[in-house]
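Much of our argument rests on the idea that a fold can be written as discrete symbols. Part of our work consisted of pairing the sequence of a single chain with a tokenised description of its backbone. We regard such an encoding as a compact summary of how the chain folds. The amino acid sequence and the backbone structure tokens for this protein are reproduced below.
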Amino acid sequence: LSHPNATYRYLSAKGFSSFTPPGLRDTLVSKLNDPVPEVVAAVAHALGQLRDPEAGEALTKAFVKRDSVGRWLMTNQNILEAIGKIAGQRAHDQIASVTTYLPQDTMLVLGQARALFHFSNRQIVSESGVLRCVELMNKEKYPQNIRLYAAHYLANTPDEMISTRADTILSLLKIEEDVDIQVPIIKAAAKSGN
């Protein structure tokens, strides 16, 4: 992870995505300041796989807010996804409330959708998350992969949050043609009691 050759650092970080021995968190966190975006993206992914909530703050600080040429897009996408795997309700609500990502910001929106999906797998959801995922279900604006993560978030949402949106969920089902997306929407619709 400290080799002068960035390719070695990248491959090492990628290796830790598959197998992360205990006690590696601090070492990985220290590599979030690597000057090479691909290395930081791989480190962020490995930290997400580690599932250690203690890494959440470091990941948040590593997010590159000013990226005029898009050099850090993959890194930011991986950071968002990793946060979804390890952080709590507060981080969920912050990510869900981001509406400044436009449809053409595909990598950031995908990172947001993946983060929300991973939060929902851990039963961390909110009204703001439901609203954002309903927005992300728009076929005219968002590609299949983003809509798929949003649909699964809705499927993982508790009955009481879905029941007030039965009409919305059913209208999404009527216009969706992709069967992989229809299945989680059907699961969500079944929770509405309609």
Summary: The chain has a mean pLDDT of 94. The chain has twelve helices and no strands.
